[in-house]
């Protein structure tokens, strides 16, 4: 045995890569998560004729998902903390797997509302469970990279769905599209329960890799209640940014297929390539947005100037979407929408980083939870609004105008609430004493 091992000092390189298999499982789950949620969006233009719902009713169906997602975000973290990642993650994906397949049984608007509600409830557990799994399986120096890998599944899922769903629906019917994606979730669940264990209980994990995973100093678990966090303007800056801009992303996910179908007459099989181009551009934007802020910092800019400068560039990328609704050519519209989705993803990468810019690590999870809830509530509101708008006017113009301006408005609000991105001094507010 080496002197370092005898002394309990981890080697400079771990003696194994089993933790990356765990990361691959998280990537697969996140990809399936986004495939499942987007099946309805891809099929929506054609299910509208099949089921007979109107735009307002479709808005209610989307709102049901958003409402459940918001509720799930409030509850999922506590449930997963109590039950552990193996069982907590399994419960989440079991709920969304059954809910995804139950869409195939829906024949009315109410049936789709119920299916979407339980899908949103289950899918809300994915990110809390995945982030907690990364914290258990990776040392701090690798967590950001591991999180980036599994989070890329959101864009992969958004790309795979418009390619896979039309093929399945044309070959075996629209019900099969929901069943196939549900089977993917169920397969992942079975694999997870059979294969996953905590690092200390995993017999295939080498002792040197376990030592590497546990190489950080012990962390003190400190829970910061929302009641303390909401007293800081910095928290409201993040919440406002999520509330104003997350709904635009939900609009992209659930209404773009309907827009392309109604404005350009695309068939179910014709939707695939345009949607793939749009979401590939979104993936590039996610990487570029994070890189741009880092580049500005390397040039000597302050964190405040670099972060907001990158956010401004991303916000300006969304502005041209106002012309997409009047574009005579499909691919001009696709390019403008793709630029906007790229801007959103780059914006989102920087908005999430605002939390670590302004809050200590032990409070970041709570702040992110608040923002995620606000974004989901905003998604509920826009779903209902868009449904009524399209039903009464049939025009996408107001929605695209709103999308083009939302990010600049959000940036202004962030700057007014946190003009220098100064750290929140949580220690300046004493914790409330328990009652005697």
TrEMBL record:
It catalyses: aldehydo-D-galacturonate(out) + H(+)(out) = aldehydo-D-galacturonate(in) + H(+)(in). The keyword Signal applies. Residues 22-422 form the Major facilitator superfamily (MFS) profile domain. It is found in: Cell inner membrane. GO terms for cellular component: plasma membrane. The chain crosses the membrane at residues 56-80, 87-119, 172-195, 235-256, 276-297, 309-325, 331-352, 364-390, 396-418. Pfam families: MFS_1 (PF07690). Gene3D superfamilies: MFS general substrate transporter like domains. Keywords: Cell inner membrane, Cell membrane, Membrane, Signal, Transmembrane, Transmembrane helix, Transport. SUPFAM superfamilies: MFS general substrate transporter. InterPro entries: MFS, MFS_dom, MFS_Na/Anion_cotransporter, MFS_trans_sf. CDD domains: MFS_ExuT_GudP_like. The keyword Transmembrane helix applies. Coiled coil: none annotated. It is a multi-pass membrane protein. GO terms for molecular function: hexuronate transmembrane transporter activity. Belongs to the major facilitator superfamily. Phthalate permease family. This is Membrane protein. It comes from Pseudoxanthomonas suwonensis.
